[in-house]
Amino acid sequence: MKGRDQVTVIAAACLVLFLGASIMMLRRIDRTRPQATLQEVLYISSPKVLKRASLGYDGLLADIYWTRAVQYFGRSHHLSGSDNLLAPLLDITTQLDPHLLVAYQFGASFLAPRPPNGAGQPERAIQLMKYGIENNPNDWHLYYDLGFVYYMDLKDYKQAADAFESGSKVPDAHPFMKVMAAQMAQHAGEFETARMLWSATYQSSQDKQIRQNALEHLRALRVDEDITHLEEAMTRFEQRNGHPPASIAELAAAEGWHGLPADPDGHPYKITAEGRIEVRVPDDFPFSAKGLPPGYKPIPRFHTPE
Amino acid sequence: MRSRIVHIASNTFREAVRDRVLYNLIGFALLLSGAAVLVGQISIDIEKLVVINLGLTAVSLFGVVIAIFIGIGLVSKEIEKRTLYTVLSRPVRRWEFIVGKFFGLSGTLVVNTFFMAIGVFAALFYVSHKFVKADGLILVALYFIVLEFLIIVSLALLFSSFSSPLLSAVFAFSLFVIGSFAEDLRNFARMAHGISGWLATAAAYLVPNFSAFNVISSIAHEQPVAAQLVLQNTLYALFYAATALSGAVLIFQHRDLK
């Protein structure tokens, strides 16, 4: 082999070898400092400083921070801690680009629900939405999301009614905003109102994850409503017979129902030895308020893939 | 072989000094001393933080600019001036020329960083009137900055081995910017699926990861750096620079210099 060919072969071999070694080393570095990016980005926590440092490319920087917020939310195990970085990340994102609507809409869904489905910070979600409305007063979706958080997470009907009412006055607002405002003002039935809200969310969003989330909540509402009716039937049974029904079949027979009452997936409900009514597969209804075994911890939902 | 590489490296160093590269130290000294005096007068309690942040950022940026703008001319300038033919007509192999150039410019940057480091510590002493143990962490940040330079020099040499100086500068500077956001790039890749996910992952691992070397903010907040990270970053920088140098040798070996 000539000297020149020899150098070529050695250089090519070195290139492949060192490239492989550097990739391997990078993976190790990732393991050593997996959260470094997020911890470090918040060393500069002032959006104003970041805006100036971005040299006018604040839109791009907002997109990067939004992606970081989504990534952070994806790693849901951080959300319940006091060192939760989600709210500061969202604040930076929206202050860098106050018109990034998706950050408000998703951001409120990330912040408001209780862990593990969210950060359990409805007050921060409201702050975020109010900032969004201040900067985008003509987008009715933001008023809707604000009312949603007031109703669902804080049970503050008056504030929710005000939010829907204000949103209904925005040009091109969806007609259901007026209906929602009225419902809130009347303190209408919980199930009915909640169903209307989630249906509206499902219909008004094009985003796959938001729609899926709404669908799961609608299914959970159906379970909650079913179990409320079943509990009433159980009370009637007990008053008539002096003891609770031993099984769901016994309850159905006593009430004269055709077939066994079943959840939205068609699985019949069950009555436990302790006299509780539960669903057969709790993981299928993680958002249900009723029908789940005591101490059940739902699998986090509404997450982006890591 | 070793003496030939050392000879080319020392020539490159001398040439850089002759090109008044080290004059940047004057600009650096003015910037830092001005900042140290000014910050002491206009801010409360963050003088030290500002001096560390500003000092280390300036060391990094000055060095990156030198690495790119000197690095891109290392090969093309020799061809333009026809001095390369004189060098290669002697018993110097092409790969020795590339490796020698790499060590020459890296050496220049190490010397430059050394003097800048003295400036950073002097400014620090001026604002805080004493040194504490945590100030030693600044040495780790400086070491990481030098490792960053090794990668940039190797990349500048790689581009210089086949492209014009202007394009080489554009390529090298673009890679520096992309590499500074490498972790975000990998986060994007994790979110993507299918073929775009594969492509993004491949790109994320191919571009240099400079974000792992950037510990300036954490050191300014006196956060320690894991010894494991120092070792891993060292190996990563050496492997990556060796990869780029191998590429440069491979291209330069087959380049028609006629």
DSSP helix fraction of chain B: over 70%
Mean pLDDT of chain A: 81
Overall 3D form of chain A = flat
Count of discrete domains of chain B: 1
Please count the beta strands of chain B (DSSP E, at least 2 residues each). Answer: 0
For the biggest β-sheet of chain A, the strand order reads 1-2
Largest sheet of chain B: none
The amount of beta strand of chain B, in percent, is under 5%
**SS element count, helices of chain B:** 12
Order of helix and strand elements from N to C terminus of chain A: HHHHHHHHHHHHHEE
Give the number of helices of chain A. 13
Percent strand of chain A: under 5%
Kindly report the greatest chain-chain contact and the residue count on each side. A-B, 34 and 38 residues
The gyration radius over C-alpha positions of chain A equals 26 Å
Number of strands of chain A: 2
Task: Explain the overall architecture.
- The complex is a heterodimer of chains A (306) and B (258).
- Chain A has 306 residues and is mostly helical.
- Among the domains of chain A are: 35-136; 214-284.
- In chain A, 62% of the residues lie in helices and 1% in strands.
- Chain A contains 13 helices and two strands.
- Chain A has helices at 3-32, 36-41, 47-53, 58-74, 86-96, 101-111, 122-135, 140-152, 157-168, 176-186, 190-204, 208-241, 248-255; strands spanning 270-271, 277-278.
- A two-stranded antiparallel sheet of chain A has the order 1-2.
- In chain A, a hairpin with a 5-residue loop joins strand 1 and strand 2 (277-278).
- In chain A, helix 5 packs antiparallel against helix 6 and helix 6 (101-111) packs antiparallel against helix 7.
- Chain A is flat, with a radius of gyration of 26 Å.
- Chain A starts with a helix and ends in a 28-residue tail after the last strand.
- In chain A, 36% of the residues are buried.
- Residues 302-306 of chain A have low confidence and may be disordered.
- Chain B is mainly alpha-helical and 258 residues long.
- Chain B has one domain (2-253).
- In chain B, 80% of the residues lie in helices and 0% in strands.
- Chain B contains twelve helices and no strands.
- Chain B has helices at 2-18, 24-42, 47-71, 73-80, 83-89, 94-128, 137-160, 165-180, 182-191, 194-206, 216-220, 227-253.
- In chain B, helix 6 (94-128) runs antiparallel to helix 7, helix 7 (137-160) packs antiparallel against helix 8 and helix 7 runs parallel beside helix 12.
- The radius of gyration of chain B is 20 Å and the shape is globular.
- The model of chain B has no long low-confidence stretch (mean pLDDT 85).
- At the A-B interface, helix 1, helix 2 and helix 4 of A face helix 9, helix 11 and helix 12 of B.
